[in-house]
Amino acid sequence: MIDMKLIREHSDLVQANCTKRGFPIDINALLQLDAEARQLNQEIEALRAERNRLSKSCGADPAARERVKQLKVVLGQKETKLEATNKKIMAVATRIPNLLAPDVPEGTDDSCNVEIRKVGELPQFDFEIRDHQELGERLDILDIARGAKVAQTGFYYWKGKGAILAQALYFWVQRLLVERGFTVFMTPCLAKERTLFGTGYLPFFADQTYNLEGEDLALIGTSEQTLVGYHADDVLDAADLPLCYTAFTPCFRTEAGSYGKASRGIFRVHQFHKVEQIIFCRPEESPKWHEFCLKNEEDILQQLKIPYHVVNVCVGDLGAPGYKKYDTEAWFPSFGSYREVTSNTNLTGFQARRLNIRFKDGDVRDYVHTISATAATDRLVIAIMENYQQRDGSVVVPEVLRPFTGFEVIEPVIK
Question: pLDDT tens digits, residue range 214-260?
Fold first, then answer.
């Protein structure tokens, strides 16, 4: 959420940002509501002061008693009006997108994202390559058909050595993050509406959420929601910042509106697994920690020896809560292109204001900044499968994962 003081002082900037990001919000109308609320607040405070003054002499002064009764009625009316006005303000203010970093590229979709760097040599195959779905079936490590039978399309099973490979990856990634100062969490897989609202998933991504009927709960789409929500209403000690958290969880998304987008295999699904990086930091340090998370993502891909590139995400591909975002895209031979495996967003104080997460440094109180960055998902497992495939259909396990899998190669079951 944007600071109301900033909106008052830089209304033209905020209006231009809304327009640029495709949010039809009338900032002048919001400011008019804000002015009404502030005027009502002044009137209410004056009436309360008069009521308190007269209350001291009510016992001996019938006129004072009568005036206090009248003030009570007027106060009730104005307080009701103020409450209604504040609700209108919040309905608008909570839909205002975050401001943008100066270097966010122009553009309407991911085709306008700007490549920052490309790392690694693309694998060369002297045989007909297979995509991860065919590999998974031949190796008997990925079962999409039974996932659809048991649940529906968009759900799947890792099995046998595939499940071991996936778990080895997630354990190794978490260990790497712990070595770099992260605290590991095991979080709930459900969150209240306030948590989803506070992290910016509501109202901006409401159509991506699985809600539990009759409950103030929804399945999480990422542990970002539960890790950031962990500190709702907290005042953190500046000396403890940054706080670096990580968690491995299943994630659930409806993928509404994504029909036809890389739908083969498990590239775009309703349930997947993810290791997340979350950082709470001082406002002036968020760019540094944003880069720190990116380095972690790149180091993981480099140690796995998977080719990738990093892109600076454009305006049209950047979610409303984001100030600046990097996507790291691995090379997928079956696509013949780079595809997103991790994303990394500096959210500045957007989430902290919505969840009331502050820090104290002596007499200073301010909202923290938050960074949310993927470390690994199932997409990284399938990137391993595709890049490490062999002529006979086997898949070689990356060297860094072998101590955790107990095997070096996954041999095909179906020849």
Answer: 999 999 999 999 999 999 999 999 999 999 999 999 999 998 655 55
Give the whole-angstrom CA distance, residue 268 versus residue 145.
15
d(CA 164, CA 405): 6
Q: What angle do CA 27, 30, 33 make, to 5 degrees?
A: 155
Q: How many other C-beta atoms lie within 10 A of the C-beta of residue 44?
A: 16
Q: What is the pLDDT of residues 297-342, one digit of tens each?
A: 999 999 999 999 999 999 999 999 999 999 999 999 999 999 999 9
Q: Cα–Cα–Cα angle for 72, 73, 75, nearest 5°?
A: 65
Cβ partners under 8 Å of residue 260, min gap 6: none
pTM: 0.93
Residue 75's Cβ-side half-sphere holds a number of Cα atoms within 13 Å equal to 15
Q: How confident is the model at residue 50 (pLDDT cuts 50, 70, 90)?
A: confident
- Residue numbers annotated as active site: 253, 268, 340, 343, 379
Give the contacts of 271 (CB within 8 A, at least 6 positions apart).
Answer: 151, 154, 155, 250, 251, 252
